[in-house]
Amino acid sequence: MTWRLFLALSAAVIVPLPALAEPGLPDAAQVAEALDAHPSVLAARQRVEATRAGAEARAIGPHELTFSGSYVRRDTRIDGGFNEFDTQLSRSVRLPGKARLDSEIGQHQVEAAENMAEDVRHQAALVLAGHWWDWLEAAAAARVDLQAVGNLERSLAAVRRRVELGDAALLDADLAEAALGQARILAEQSAGEALLARGRLETHFPALALPAEAPEVPQPAADGDLLATLRDQVLTNSHEIAAAEAHADGMSAAAERARLERTADPSLGVRLFSERGGEERGAGLVFSIPLGGGHRAALASEAAATASAAAADATLARFTVRETADADLAEATFRISAWHRAREALDAQMSALQRLRRGHDLSEIDLSDLLLGERLTHEAFRTEAVTRAQAQRAITRIRVDSHQLWLAD
């Protein structure tokens, strides 16, 4: 198969992608299954359940009924012995405002945990996309290298035939064979790299069913308006920002809760007692309250400082996500542009190779010049395949970061 036929077949499988439906990616249902089965996602979901349970406990409150009692056998010289007992049932009561804040803190904690779990799934999707495009990029390069081997094998056969007919020198056969040897080395290396990339993908996402052969890398076709829209959605749909803001709101409520805790919760209860063998019996109410001091004040100051730090962390999260969005847009833009330039260079190199082949057929071009043209054409095909995969990788990344791919939640 010649380079021109290879180019024609490559163009036949490269089709423009719709605005938000990109060929060359694994099935969305299989991706969802693979992400759900990833250990990091499973762990994050269990942390959400743990946080929900903690929020429920916080809303109920830590105070429980406390039962206490005593029994005493008392002996006197005058009146003899007496059985005496004392029982008390008490419970601390949250002061007004504390229960509301406890529920609010729990709600913010659950919201933060849920967003962090979604962000973990987001990160797992980025890992999957990275390994997927590693495989497709390596496989695309391997196909080009294998095609180069086939072309040089046919060239060597043709040169040997011309040597037999006395129309070429033995040096020409040596040059063709050396070029073929170099091409075979590169083909072995690229095939091995494709196998390694596939192995990494299978190891990290065993639930993802992979085809026997890597799919062809489609043609990048995302325009500037679409990329700009996706960039804005990276900010709008960021679970990292939502988690940081929920955490900051929870810390703010916790600081207010710590301020109220400077006034401790009182304990109320009922007391029953019997003395001197029942001669004296009574019932009454008991009340107690800790008198807060410097310790509670220090805890309130600590909580206030922690809330301020959490607010700063939320601002930093917004900066980080904005940087990610801008970087995604910039990379997708220049990767697509680089692919266009690689495609133009490939077309020019193909035209030059055709001229070299005609010149060699007419004995106007030396074999060494033709082999150089074949090598440059091989490099142009390889560059086009790699830049095409890199462009698609960048498009996939911005679509995942914007939650328009695999993460519609």
TrEMBL record:
Pfam families to which the protein is assigned, alphabetical: OEP
SUPFAM superfamilies: Outer membrane efflux proteins (OEP)
Listed InterPro entries: MdtP/NodT-like, OMP_efflux
Keyword Signal carried by entry: yes
Signal peptide location: 1-21
Domain of life: Bacteria
Annotated organism of origin: Alteraurantiacibacter buctensis
PANTHER family given in the database record: BLR4935 PROTEIN, OUTER MEMBRANE CATION EFFLUX PROTEIN
Family membership: Belongs to the outer membrane factor (OMF) (TC 1.B.17) family.
Keywords for the protein's UniProt record, in alphabetical order: Signal
Record protein name field: Transporter
GO molecular function, one term: efflux transmembrane transporter activity
Parts forming coiled coils: none
